[in-house]
Amino acid sequence: MLKIGSHVSFSEKGLLRAANEAVTYGSSTFMIYTGAPQNTRRKPIESLYINEGKQVMLEAGIGEIVVHAPYIVNLGSYKDDTYRLAVDFLQEEIRRTNQIGVRNIVLHPGAFTEKDAEYGIARIAEGLTEVLEGTKETDVNIALETMAGKGTEIGRTFEELAAIIDKVPGNDRLTICMDTCHIHDAGYDVVNDFDGVLRKFDDIIGLERLAVVHVNDSKNPQGAAKDRHAPVGSGWIGFEAISRVVGHESLKDKPFVLETPWIGKTEATERPMYEAEIALLRGDAEERFGGEFLTDVERLHHFFEKEDIQPRLFVLNTWELLKSDAKAKKADPREPLERLYDMVIENRMFTGDYSEEAINQRLTAMLAGKDYLAKL
Ligand code: FE
Ligand code: FE
Ligand code: ZN
After folding, report:
1. Mean pLDDT value across the chain
2. Which residues lie near ion ligand 2 (Cβ < 5 Å)?
3. Which residues surround ligand 3, an ion (CB under 5 A)?
4. Which of 14, 184, 204, 278 is 20 to 30 Å apart from 197, CA to CA?
5. pLDDT digits (tens, 9 = 90+) for 213-255
6. What are phi and psi of 4, to 5 degrees?
7. 266 Cβ neighbours under 8 A, 6+ residues apart
8. Which ligand is nearest to the Cα of residue 230, counting in written order?
9. All residues at 6 or more sequence positions from 27 whose CB lies less than 8 Å from its CB, including other chains
10. How far is the CA of 126 from the centre of ligand 2 (A)?
11. What's the rounded Cα separation, in Å, for the pair 64 and 203?
């Protein structure tokens, strides 16, 4: 069975809360931060509802899940206190991950700040060696994440990740988390040649190291080195390419984790589009949302056709405009999905009392394309 899910909250009731949230999206896997990703304060393991959460997972058929290390720790830092904090905290985090029963903890390798990439790679390898050495009693793997290459972050090429792995003596507990937005932003051609990307990955790192896939669209074109996630279908990568990633034979049985944002007006009250994204990528949107859902999506297709708007082109052209025309962006900063949403509202497409989420779910399905709809 396809393992697909999203990042979910681990606050309050820990694993119980996370598992329950994942179930509402129809997930078969999920990812958690064991506390706030921007700090290192953590609750004692006894207060994380581990057994209760596992019960919910069992009932929902959720097996493998993933932990993400906080992104403030920096193993690449030349500053001794920053580096030390990263090493110590990661060891604790790995023990916590082990206690939760999770196999892979995703880590942003680090940033070289005022030094250079070579320094960063050596420093990260040194840190990882120490972290692995100190957590030998666990069988938790550290999944180094492929990065977009913003700022001075390390891990923007497969070569950099391979160089780190090579420098760590006992490296069998080092795996990789491949993030579609990040590799696209780093310059890899996810859209037209994902086979080639995987071949490269296999040559340089080895596919056997690949443990987790982060599934995100991107708000920026290939090679932009930006790292801004978009909902599946409303970014530069597009639904079709992402669906090829999720269905790729070489990635069979890997956990696919969405980290896509909510785009909309009612920010605080709505959820990300995970439920729709998961159902669309798995191909069970009709079962999940009912027959009317697809009728609605067809109506959207008709409507935009009548308006002479080709949804995929509209998305790409809007991003292009926002990128290249500062004046136009200032006059109208709305992202593609929000613009489509506004057209739906202005034209009173749906008479029912659909929430913004319900409309965005239908738009997301529309962005999967007409061919996709025909296949269902
Ligand atoms: Fe990450
Ligand atoms: Fe990611
Ligand atoms: Zn990212």
Report:
1. 95
2. 179, 214
3. 227
4. 278
5. 999 999 999 999 999 999 999 999 999 999 999 999 999 999 9
6. -140, 140
7. 356
8. 3
9. 4, 5, 6, 8, 60, 62, 274, 278
10. 23
11. 27
Q: Which ligand sits closest to the CA of 71?
A: 1
341 CA from centroid of ligand 2 (Å)? 26
**What's the pLDDT at 291?**
79
* DSSP tag of 364: H
The span from the CA of 183 to the CA of 348, in Å, is 39
Q: What is the CA radius of gyration of the chain?
A: 21
pTM of the model: 0.97
Residue range 335-361, pLDDT digits in tens: 999 999 999 999 999 977 899 999 999
For 179-196, what is each residue's pLDDT tens digit?
Answer: 999 999 999 999 999 999
CA of 321 to the centre of ligand 1 (A): 28
In 224-340, at which residue ranges do the beta strands (DSSP E only) sit?
Answer: 229-230, 255-258
**Which of 350, 363, 371, 322 is CA-nearest to residue 232?**
363
d(C-alpha 176, C-alpha 143), whole Å: 4
Strand partners, 258: 6, 215
Looking only at Cα atoms, what is the longest distance across the chain?
63
Supply the DSSP symbol for 5.
E
Q: Which ligand is nearest to the CA of 69?
A: 1
Q: How far is the CA of 209 from the centre of ligand 1 (A)?
A: 17
The angle at the Cα of 41, spanning 39 to 44, to the nearest 5 degrees, equals 150
Cα–Cα dist 99/104, whole Å: 12
Measured between alpha carbons, how far is 185 from 102 in angstroms, rounded to an integer? 29
Task: Measure 93 CA to ligand 2 centroid, in angstroms.
Answer: 18
If you search the block for the tokens 């080092």, which residue do you land on?
A: 174
Mean pLDDT of 64-72: 94
Residue-wise pLDDT tens digits, 255-286: 999 999 998 888 766 788 999 999 999 999 99
Distance 352 CA to ligand 3 centre (A): 36
